[in-house]
Amino acid sequence: MNEIRTLLTGRGLVESPRWHGGRLYLSDWSAGEIVAVDLAGGSEVVARVESLPLCTAWLPDGRLLIVSSAAGLLLRREPDGALVTHADLGGVGWNDIVVDGRGNAYVNQVGFDPVGGESFGPGSVVVVTVDGSVRQVADNVAFPNGMAVTSDNATLIVADSYRHCLLAFDIGADGGLSNRRVWADLGVGAPDGICVDAQNAVWYADVPNQRCVRVAEGGTVLRTVELDRGCFACALGGPDGTELFMVAAEWRGMTEAEMVSPGSGQVLVTQVDVPGAGWP
């Protein structure tokens, strides 16, 4: 079994890890901060946005997109660090984001406010195309969470936490989605953040089961990394793409004043055999 080492600790509800330019970027939802950390554990705050959720993705040109759920905006971080509006999403409840190789951004929205105790309502997915237009491309996702795009730009995979599965859609030339299907039934698995590797397997983070799991299409479990706290998201990166980064914290519950134990947020890393591919 490969060693798991701690890259960063003392954080809050950590999410949305993204490998870019030799560093791992992640969001600390508790602090409203986007943090970059290098492989030696050195870190810096690169942006501050008061939003919960607070997820990010990189455009092909190297600019960072930030979902400001509270404002209903998709923000873009310019080279000078300024934050500008990339698109007006409207409403609230926006969660995860992935940008494909063509620059189309997929953003999902939870259909109710679980923190505020609202009754359940299914969520949806919109696409923000390169011209800035926004349109809904999928609905009836019980609780949309992590998303990933395969390396051929052909398939969007969406984690549906409440239905314990990964959904897949074919991506059209205009960014639209079709051919909805269950890519993997995860049994008791509750998928949160996900990433894809070069064998088209998916790693998914699982908060209640405190683990990160690699599955093939159809749901066969290929590898499991057990943790001592909830795993919120994962990303493949490092110099050769074979470092699995996992962001984890001690989960208390969605309706608690502090959803995770303060200071329990960590970035963990372990070596895997198959490098990352696709997006994020």
TrEMBL record:
<dbReference type="GO" id="GO:0046872">
    <property type="term" value="F:metal ion binding"/>
</dbReference>
<dbReference type="InterPro" id="IPR005511">
    <property type="entry name" value="SMP-30"/>
</dbReference>
<feature type="active site" description="Proton donor/acceptor">
    <location>
        <position position="192"/>
    </location>
</feature>
<dbReference type="InterPro" id="IPR013658">
    <property type="entry name" value="SGL"/>
</dbReference>
<feature type="binding site">
    <location>
        <position position="95"/>
    </location>
    <ligand>
        <name>substrate</name>
    </ligand>
</feature>
<feature type="binding site">
    <location>
        <position position="113"/>
    </location>
    <ligand>
        <name>substrate</name>
    </ligand>
</feature>
<dbReference type="InterPro" id="IPR011042">
    <property type="entry name" value="6-blade_b-propeller_TolB-like"/>
</dbReference>
<feature type="binding site">
    <location>
        <position position="192"/>
    </location>
    <ligand>
        <name>a divalent metal cation</name>
    </ligand>
</feature>
<comment type="similarity">
    <text>Belongs to the SMP-30/CGR1 family.</text>
</comment>
<keyword id="KW-0479">Metal-binding</keyword>
<protein>
    <submittedName>
        <fullName>Gluconolaconase</fullName>
    </submittedName>
</protein>
<dbReference type="InterPro" id="IPR051262">
    <property type="entry name" value="SMP-30/CGR1_Lactonase"/>
</dbReference>
<keyword id="KW-0862">Zinc</keyword>
<feature type="domain" description="SMP-30/Gluconolactonase/LRE-like region">
    <location>
        <begin position="15"/>
        <end position="249"/>
    </location>
</feature>
<dbReference type="GO" id="GO:0016787">
    <property type="term" value="F:hydrolase activity"/>
</dbReference>
<feature type="binding site">
    <location>
        <position position="15"/>
    </location>
    <ligand>
        <name>a divalent metal cation</name>
    </ligand>
</feature>
<feature type="binding site">
    <location>
        <position position="145"/>
    </location>
    <ligand>
        <name>a divalent metal cation</name>
    </ligand>
</feature>
<keyword id="KW-0378">Hydrolase</keyword>
<dbReference type="Pfam" id="PF08450">
    <property type="entry name" value="SGL"/>
</dbReference>
